[in-house]
Amino acid sequence: MIQFPKDFLWGSSTSGVQTEGRIEGDGKGDSTWDYWFKLEPQKFHQEIGPETTSTFYQHFEKDLDLLVETGHTAFRTSIQWSRLIPDGDGAINPIALEFYKQVFRGVKERGIELLVNLYHFDLPMVLEEKGGWTKREIVVAYERYARICFEEFDEWVDRWITFNEPIVPVEHGYFYQNHYPAAVDAKAGVQVAFHTQLASSLAVKACHQINPDKKIGIVLNLTPAYPRSQHPADVKAARIAELFQAKSFLDPSVKGRYPAELIEIIKHHDLLPSFEECDLEVIRENIVDYLGVNYYQPLRVAAPKYLPHPDSPFFPEFYYDHYQMPGRKMNPHRGWEIYERGVYDIAQNIQNDYGNIEWILTENGMGVEGEEKFKVGGTIQDDYRIEFIKDHLTELHRAIQEGANCKGYLVWTFIDCWSWLNSYKNRYGLIELDLTDQSRHIKKSGHWFKELSQQNGF
Ligand code: BGP
Question: Any residues with Cβ below 6 Å from ligand 1, and which?
Answer without folding.
Answer: 15, 18, 164-165, 221, 294, 363, 367, 412, 419-420, 422, 426
